[in-house]
Amino acid sequence: MDWGMIMDSNITTAKVDFSFKYHYTCFAAAFMHFTFLISFVIFGLYMMALINVFSIILYVTSGIFALKKGIDAHPLRWIIATFAEILIHALLCTLIQGLDVFFFLYPPMALPLYAYYLFVYCDRDTFIKSAVGFGMITLFAMVVSLSMVETCGTLYSITGMHALSYTEILVFRGINLLFTLGMVVVFVLVFYLEVSHLLGELQKTNLQLNYIATHDSLTGLNNRHSLWKYFEGLESSGESYCIVMGDLDDFKKINDTYGHDCGDVVLKSVASIIIENTGEDELACRWGGEEILIVMRGSHEDCFARISVIKSEISALDITSEGRPVKVTMTFGFADSSEEDTALEELSATVISEGGVSVSAKAPHHIAIDSLISMVDKRLYVGKRSGKNIIVCTS
Which residue ranges form the domains of the chain, and what is each CATH number? Predict the structure, then answer.
């Protein structure tokens, strides 16, 4: 997997920006108030109808503004404005019509949704202060309004303007229960979409970090961090495999003659050829400056043929620097897994790490790999001394 694939990975998330949500929230609220308006007019509740005219104008205007201008720059102001309208409208309806019509349900049902908006779109301190403020104001307003209605009665009953019939109570109660239930459903949906987005972003970030940790930034090849985990899986599979160490010929001369930018182009071009000729279950690792370790699955003959193709394609690279052709070749040391015993015998007589750790002290699953890497490294330098641009299979 390369960096482009990581960056363009199809992690399905549903990110809905605040302006988009606010835009649709406003028009949904306008529809709710339009429903109230029609109901109030039908039942002759003109004071309530007038209140809803102002609410409809507020929501339609805010929705159009959100659609055209966007409101992401000041989300707190818009959250406060919308919640204030819900609270004020619910209190007025409760004071005018009473408790039986259930308008008092809207503020407590809206509070979790708006607390969530605060959490997502505001910083931590603003969220805490605003959420606590919303809760305290809502509690205070609800207690006062409900107490006034229970103690003094509704505005309609006090003034004798309109006594709600049983049918009217049932209609408004049903409408309000339906809309408050809808608010709960919307909250759950928005919560799901946001969490889905955040989890998707986290997964994408983890993939990117894992790629950075296991790949060379210049060439896109694996680095040594991912090497031993891969080898552990390879050894446990019991498959035949080959290890190849390649080293660019005269790379220092290329850098000195054409510059390091040209050297980078050469490295990336060679790495691209190697990546194209290795499978997803194989590994190509930038071992050192211009050294590349390749692990291929398959028999000696198959792997040797593929390395020969890689060598030919590298030699055929058409790279120029300021009009001058740049000759690129690579020398390879080659060994297959059947040579493990021979490699172990060669390695057992030498110190295999800077700390002087013997072969027997190494982790068992590292010993065979260490020995083969040491073998191909020796064969590589035999090739370097023998004319370069060759594949060496024997010590």
Answer: 3-211 (no CATH), 224-392 (3.30.70.270)
